[in-house]
Design the sequence.
């Protein structure tokens, strides 16, 4: 209490000045309409700034909640966008009729029944690659059904569950596919073993008297319980043959018998495995008896 009295005693002149100033201003503003209006304008301006500052502080305090709400809304919109994009892609894939048959001598092939499936997981940089698709037994998918893209052979269904399936593609070292060269009827075995190149495979075991031309189409031979004949696999390319180069033109032929060191010819695959989004599973059931014999082999040959 003594400190309070000491404070008043020390600053009494300033206190008296403030009291007299307040009284003077009160008399001034109450006595004159002009001065009263000035006071009201100044007061409103000051109160407006104070209210704006308080509002800004309140908005800043609520900013965290607003950000959280916006993030939730963005996540919801992204989910809706993803679902819409997926539906559009699936609708577009369903309208595609796979061009998978290489026609010979005017023979017409009826399009087999197939199921459109989306690739949900894929590997393409390993020695033994696999694809996962979003269709299973409830969609009519079964083991050992052939799988196609819009442009050619993809692989074989290796395992299947109720809602998804596992596919062994051509870019798997365990898969062997019996193929022939369209228009020449030379039959060989297609295989792949180069993880650094998923665009090419090798066609080997061709007859020694066989001659092939750069640009020849490679198709399935039909010597399989899984694949129909004349399904497009790829084309012969002018690249390395057994790690040795042969210089040819599209009009020149490669004589297998004249290159005894060449055990295979390079084939550019018709399917682009780096951009594979949708596939088509042919729902033809393989023969159970042939399937049992095929499964007894050590290599997953087709």
Sequence:
């Amino acid at each position: 209490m003594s400190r309070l009295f000491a404070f008043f005693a020390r600053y009494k002149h300033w206190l008296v000045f403030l009291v007299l100033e307040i009284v003077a201003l009160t008399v001034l503003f109450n006595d004159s309409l002009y001065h009263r209006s000035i006071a009201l304008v100044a007061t409103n301006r000051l109160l407006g700034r104070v209210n704006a500052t308080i509002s800004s502080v309140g908005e800043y305090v609520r900013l965290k909640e607003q950000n959280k709400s916006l993030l939730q809304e963005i996540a919801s919109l992204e989910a809706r966008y993803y679902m819409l994009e997926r539906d559009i892609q699936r609708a577009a894939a369903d309208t595609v009729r796979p061009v998978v048959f290489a026609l010979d001598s005017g023979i017409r092939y009826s399009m087999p029944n197939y199921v459109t499936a989306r690739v949900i997981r894929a590997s393409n940089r390993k020695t033994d690659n696999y694809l996962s698709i979003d269709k299973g037994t409830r969609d009519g998918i079964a083991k050992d059904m052939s799988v196609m893209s819009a442009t050619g052979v993809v692989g074989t269904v290796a395992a299947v569950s109720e809602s998804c399936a596992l596919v062994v593609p051509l870019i798997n070292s365990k898969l062997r596919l019996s193929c022939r060269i369209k228009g020449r009827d030379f039959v060989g075995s297609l295989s792949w073993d180069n993880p650094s190149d998923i665009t090419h495979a090798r066609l080997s075991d061709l007859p020694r008297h066989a001659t092939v031309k750069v640009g020849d189409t490679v198709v399935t031979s039909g010597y399989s319980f899984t694949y129909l004949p004349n399904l497009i696999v790829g084309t012969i390319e002018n690249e390395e043959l057994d790690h040795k180069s042969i210089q040819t033109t599209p009009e020149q032929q490669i004589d297998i018998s004249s290159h005894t060191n060449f055990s295979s010819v390079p084939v550019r695959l018709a399917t682009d495995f780096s951009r594979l989004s949708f596939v088509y599973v042919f729902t033809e059931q393989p023969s159970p008896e042939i399937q049992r014999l095929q499964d007894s082999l050590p290599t997953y040959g087709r």
